Design the sequence.
């Protein structure tokens, strides 16, 4: 009897992988918000439809406080770490034994219908693409959101899952990185995905789904926390790399904003616009100056965190 593996891996970031980048000809869009033909357009349209009110409320609060550096555009909002979509990768099999892309896609559509029926109040699919090369798999991007008493929708993983009635994997333990509602939601989705694939695998002769113990996966998560304590040196190096990358990114953002500031100043100096256009330029200039100041403060904080890390690594 041949064993076949099915995986449902959740992560945070852009739906992309080495195979898809190296072989873009075998990547195609299979689902998107309001049937958009481009993943970027689908994401932008979803955020404008669902979260424009939330962003406007937050921007207005910052505007009243004179904190113009924290005012967002929708593109900045949807790409930020706090608000950007989640990603999952679903795959069945390996190079030696696998499902046909058509069968994988049919199973995914069944799985997605189940998820929409059960969690449609907190879940919205942004886009899904299938890679049909050597090892077929599907990348999906989605958002989890919750709704307040006024009907305004907000991004937020923990509050959305709490609103849906999903508890912690270990209810008696404190909520933490390795004990949170997202872990439980992923576990529920993973088990349901395996149920669909198990049903499909029965139609293949001499094929049996290899199904891992879900409790064992959760125990591995708890053990990771212990291993981090022993890998202190590795953790310090990771932190150093992370803060250095953050400082570089902030420096690039400041350079871009300074260019935009120069453009606004030259446009204001020319003064060829209407009164409303000049007022909009003045407000945008305040926003840009505020962001430059905020990013400069963040760079200083990042450097302040790097200094003790450098010192500890040198004396390890």
Sequence:
């Amino acid at each position: 009897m041949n064993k076949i593996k099915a995986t449902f891996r959740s992560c945070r970031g852009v739906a992309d992988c080495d195979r898809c980048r190296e072989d873009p000809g075998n990547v195609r869009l299979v689902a998107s918000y309001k049937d958009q033909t481009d993943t970027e357009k689908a994401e932008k349209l979803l955020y404008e439809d669902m979260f424009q009110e939330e962003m406007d409320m937050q921007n207005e609060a910052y505007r009243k406080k004179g904190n113009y550096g924290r005012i967002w555009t929708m593109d900045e909002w949807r790409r930020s770490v706090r608000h950007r979509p989640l990603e999952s990768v679903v795959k069945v099999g390996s190079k030696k034994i696998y499902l046909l892309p058509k069968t994988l896609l049919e199973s995914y559509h069944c799985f997605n219908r189940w998820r929409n029926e059960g969690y449609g109040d907190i879940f919205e699919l942004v886009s899904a693409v299938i890679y049909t090369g050597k090892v077929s798999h599907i990348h999906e991007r989605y958002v989890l959101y919750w709704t307040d008493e006024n009907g305004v929708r907000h991004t937020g993983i923990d509050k959305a899952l709490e609103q849906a009635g999903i508890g912690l994997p270990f209810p008696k333990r404190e909520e933490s990185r390795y004990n949170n509602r997202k872990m439980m939601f992923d576990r529920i989705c993973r088990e349901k995905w395996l149920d669909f694939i198990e049903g499909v695998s029965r139609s293949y002769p001499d094929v049996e789904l290899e199904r891992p113990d879900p409790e064992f996966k959760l125990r591995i998560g708890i053990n990771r926390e212990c291993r981090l304590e022993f890998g202190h040196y590795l953790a310090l190096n990771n932190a150093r790399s992370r803060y250095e990358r953050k400082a570089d990114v902030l420096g690039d953002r400041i350079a871009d904003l300074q260019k935009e500031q120069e453009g606004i100043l030259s446009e204001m100096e020319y003064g060829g616009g209407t009164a409303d256009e000049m007022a909009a330029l003045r407000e945008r200039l305040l926003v840009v100056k505020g962001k430059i100041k905020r990013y400069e403060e963040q760079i200083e904080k990042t450097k302040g965190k790097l200094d003790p890390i450098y010192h500890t690594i040198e004396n390890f």
